[in-house]
Amino acid sequence: MKQKLITTFKDYLIISAGLVLFTLAWTVFIIPAEITGGGVSGVAAVIFYGWKIPVWITYLTVNVFLLILALKILGANFGIKTIYCMSLVSGLFAILPQIIKEPIIDDTFLAAVLGGMMSGAGLGIVFSRGGSTGGTDIIAMIINKYRNISPGKVILACDVIIISSSYFIFHSLEKLVYGFVLMWVVSYSLDAFLNGAKRSTQMFIFSKKYEEIADFINKETDRGVTVINGTGWYTKENVDILMTVVRKRESSLIFRKIKNIDPDAFITMGSVMGVFGRGFEKIKI
Questions:
Q1: What is the pLDDT of residue 77?
Q2: Which domain covers residue 69, as residue numbers?
Q3: Are residue 25 and residue 99 in the same domain, yes or no?
Q4: Whether residue 98 sits in one domain with residue 49
Q5: Dihedral over Cα of 217, 218, 222, 225: its sign
Q6: In this structure, are 136 and 263 located in the same domain?
Q7: In whole numbers, what is the pLDDT of the chain averaged over residues?
Q8: pLDDT of amino acid 282
Q9: What would the DSSP string read from start to end of the chain?
Q10: How far apart are CA 4 and CA 13, in angstroms?
Q11: Which of 139, 159, 222, 236 has a CA positioned 20 to 30 A from the CA of residue 76?
Q12: Are 127 and 239 in the same domain?
């Protein structure tokens, strides 16, 4: 019970740090540069640009409406983490603009890139701990219930509509382009954060000294190795092939060792989408 409480507290602490980073990105870079991003934050920003309604009011109002709608239509339990995330972001949007009143940089493109990177990293931290900011995710779930449309496509369509709506406020194609740049950087940063440390590589190693190489991979990197018996079609000779899957960061160590053991070894390497099992990710259903 004590361990569970510690884990829960740690989750909320890390989620809070991610939300602070996310909100800072909007407060410091995105909103001062008058760039429109996706999600409910983007809706709140557009309304702020046009009618000067504080971002936190719109953000909280829209999210509460969507949450009530989802509970009524889907009957889903979004959990305390989602409600906590919505509440904290709303509070941060109310407090931070009172503290940070002057833009840090004047370059709009740089603001889009830095804001997107911070925002994506913040969301990555939140998602890695099972948190959710709600927003367009809820719209995607509602539409997916009645239409066979993937949530990803719905979220993308929502973001495009939200960013495009900024044209009616600024009448500027330049602002529109910066909005799509922001959307791309957020998406890239989020994927890089969530998958960067988890990227794995599948290696096929052809070497006459396969036993020594296999022992090294087993003992030094603690990774499994499979020996595959094959036949070289040109020489018609039997060959032993090593197949292993390792983290991408571990592959350079293996390369260096193979070079020392057998400089003539033939190696192929390719990225894999996902690896599940001992030493990698757990299978989740």
A1: 56
A2: 2-196
A3: yes
A4: yes
A5: positive
A6: no
A7: 89
A8: 74
A9: -HHHHHHHHHHHHHHHHHHHHHHHIIIIIITTTT---SHHHHHHHHHHHHH---HHHHHHHHHHHHHHHHHHHT----HHHHHHHHHHHHHHHHHHHHH--S-S---HHHHHHHHHHHHHHHHHHHHHTT----THHHHHHHHHHHS---HHHHHHHHHHHHHHHTHHHH--HHHHHHHHHHHHHHHHHHHHHHHGGG-EEEEEEE-TTHHHHHHHHHHHS---EEEEEEEETTTTEEEEEEEEEEEHHHHHHHHHHHHHH-TT-EEEEEEES--BSTTSBPP--
A10: 14
A11: 159
A12: no
Domain count, the chain: 2
Is residue 265 domain-shared with residue 153, that is, in the same domain? no
Residues 40 and 24 in one domain: yes
82-94 confidence digits (pLDDT tens): 889 999 999 999 9
pLDDT at 43: 96
With contact defined as beta carbons under 8 Å apart, do 213 and 242 qualify?
Answer: yes
Q: Report the sign of the C-alpha dihedral through residues 154, 273, 133, 27, in that order.
A: negative
Provide mean pLDDT across the span 135-160: 84
For residue 283, is it within any domain? Answer: no
Residue 285 has pLDDT above 50, yes or no: no
CA distance 78 to 256: 48
Tell me if 182 sits within 8 A of 188, measured CB to CB.
Answer: no
Residue 285 located in a structural domain = no
CATH number at residue 266: 3.30.70.120
Residues 6 or more apart whose CB falls under 8 angstroms from that of 83 comprise 67
198 secondary structure, DSSP code:
G
**Bridge partners, residue 200, by sequence:** 247, 272
Pick the last residue of a domain from 146, 173, 196: 196
Please tell me the predicted confidence (pLDDT) of residue 110. 96
pLDDT at position 69 over 90: no
